[in-house]
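Workshop exercise sheet. Pairs work together: one partner reads the sequence aloud, the other fills in the structure field after running the prediction. Swap roles for the next sheet.
Pair: D.N. / O.F.
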Amino acid sequence: MTIWLLALVLLASLAALGFRQGAIRVGFSFFGILMGVLLAAPLGKVIKPLLGIFGVKSPILIWALPALIAFLIISALFKVAAAFVHQKVDVYYKYKAGDLRQALWERLNQRLGLCLGLMNGAAYLVLIAFIIYPFSYWTYQLATSDQEPKMVRLLNRLGKDLESTGFNKVARSIDPLPPVFYELADLSGVIFNNPLAEARVSNYPAFLGLAERQEFQDLARDTEFSNLRLRHATLNEILSHPRLQSIIQNADLVKTIGNTVTPNLADFRTYMDTGRSPKYEAETILGRWKFDARATLAAVRRAKPNISSKEMQFQRAWMTSAFAKTTMVATTEKQAIIKNLPTTLKAPAANQPAPALQTLAGEWENSSGKYQLSFSGNGMLAAIEGGRMSVNAEGVTLVFDKEY
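Structure field:
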């Protein structure tokens, strides 16, 4: 087992180092470890803003490095103090105490140093286990094959050994990370290993606004990235993709994603399991909607019962071509976006050119069960029944079907 091999190497090496350095320096180091663990988080908050000055942009490094740097600084300070005290004591026994007292002190110093070195080794083992556990919890679920980099495979092996030996309980006992950290890992593993589940993710109500951002639109249209996902490329290959890197290195966007995902995590899990969102299902307008030409033509026939077959054929040809790509998105931020909508909703004369397409961005408001859509001063009224929405605009009824 790699974890026991790591434990053996750590304890043996630090016991030997303790025997060589003596009790004072090793004892100070032990207290440096304890103080480093206690103060790493609060001091890390002070160090975190400084990372941007040195060009650190990765959110993973910004999250992990401050506490590590604070721990190393505190440990270094205790080692400096240890060297100073050790020198004072060493000078005393070498020049002011007798030979017998010096010999007794050196023997006590070495043997006590060995014992304290074992304590240091145990402390470092627990800290290393704590570092391995959360990172391996993610990488193990996101690993796709044996082609992962050696460091990832080693981390996964160590994490698996932690689990099999029960040493993961030690790591969790000092783990300050919230449960949401591991819940996100579980969900990420499911989505990462099931590329077809991404469509459901993008349709979750709280994520609709994020999905409309240009960064995610570009990523979704990137055929190279899609091929990586479909062939189950390694995590390293996917993370190295330029479009994904531009998202990861955008600190504001990463923060926005975190603020969106975290409060909706429990509801999102339910949505992934059942296809329903208890938190947002009351607002029936939320979601993606696709223009339904057949239902819209039926509405035209109901509005004009005496319409001729020739006019009906003309309307069918017009709507099928003009509204072929028309879609609508309603987000939890009360944004309403209609894409590829003709500039005029009424069929032009036979000798007139087809109208251009436009994208309207506005807001929606729930008004006694119906929805008022506002686009640059132009209002539309929407009524929803089941998975179908009827929008009245310019005297025309447009029908949309909800995408699931």
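Discussion prompt: The CA atoms of residues 75 and 314 lie 80 Å apart. What would you look at next?
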